[in-house]
Design goal:
Layout lengths: L8 H6 L11 E8 L3 E2 L2 E2 L6 E9 L4 E9 L10 E13 L2 E11 L11 E11 L2 E8 L6 H8 L7 E12 L2 E11 L11 E13 L2 E10 L17 E9 L1
Antiparallel strand pairs: 1-4, 1-14, 2-3, 4-5, 5-6, 6-7, 7-8, 8-9, 9-10, 10-11, 11-12, 12-13, 13-14
């Protein structure tokens, strides 16, 4: 799964599994999580999320996929579902694995009162051993910030997100992960935001007969950078739990 690194460790561990050595061309994934945190901020107003998707990976390195999750309607102006579609190319060259692609985030039913919420990003990444880094670049207005941008004429196109993650095999089915991500908002000050916000995650998981149980602590440098539907900080620190399976 290439959608993004979730706050729950289980997804960090299954991301890219469809492109491991000699992969099955089709894979699916499903997860139940205590909260859906995207880049450090809740998308379900700190409520549980049911998520899943599928991937097709060709032996040449090209891949396409889809990922879905429930979201809080008040956060997405009427939408209760996030649907992501992505495609790209991932290939190992020596010790380095490269990954380039495009992802589109859609929220069917949004735009009930203000504006339709969506986003398209291009990304490029590389991994060496347990460490990976990926840079996302917004090709459109960054999610609902396009509403503010439309009022003042300063687009948030070009917003970037840098994701750096290390995942370590601890043996006996245990794995640990550490993550830091930096969101840099284009025309941030003019749209009422600080120029950047950082999110952090520390997690651990256990693979039990193909079922991955995960726990992760997620926090942000600016808790109220984004707000929930009831105008409370969306970046409050949380200890999250999840169970997932790839099939």
């Amino acid at each position: 799964m290439f959608r993004h690194l979730m706050s729950c460790l289980a997804v960090s561990l299954t991301c890219g599994s469809a492109l491991a050595a000699d992969p099955a061309p089709f894979t699916g994934n499903a997860m139940l999580a205590s909260d859906y945190k995207f880049r450090g901020f809740t998308q379900t107003r700190y409520k549980p999320a049911l998520q899943g998707g599928f991937d097709f990976a060709h032996s040449s390195g090209f891949y396409v996929g889809n990922w879905n999750s429930n979201v809080e309607q008040s956060l997405f102006d009427g939408a209760s579902l996030e649907m992501d579609v992505y495609g790209g190319f991932k290939k190992a060259m020596g010790a380095i694995t490269y990954d380039v692609g495009v992802i589109h985030y859609a929220y069917p039913g949004s735009g009930l009162t203000i504006t339709k919420i969506d986003n398209t990003e291009a990304y490029v990444g590389a991994s060496v051993g347990p460490v990976s880094a990926k840079l996302y670049y917004a090709l459109t207005g960054y999610f609902d910030t396009k509403t503010l941008a439309a009022r003042n004429g300063l687009s948030t196109d070009g917003t970037t997100y840098l994701d750096v993650t290390a995942t370590v095999d601890l043996g006996s089915g245990w794995s640990g992960t550490a993550h830091a991500g930096v969101l840099s908002m284009k025309n941030a000050a003019s749209n009422g935001y600080a120029s950047s916000v950082t999110d952090y995650k520390l997690g651990i998981s256990r693979d039990i007969s193909g079922w991955v149980l995960g726990a992760a602590y997620v926090t942000t440098s600016r808790k109220d950078y984004f707000l929930t539907g009831d105008l409370k900080p969306a970046g409050d620190p949380r200890l999250l739990a999840s169970v997932s399976k790839t099939f």
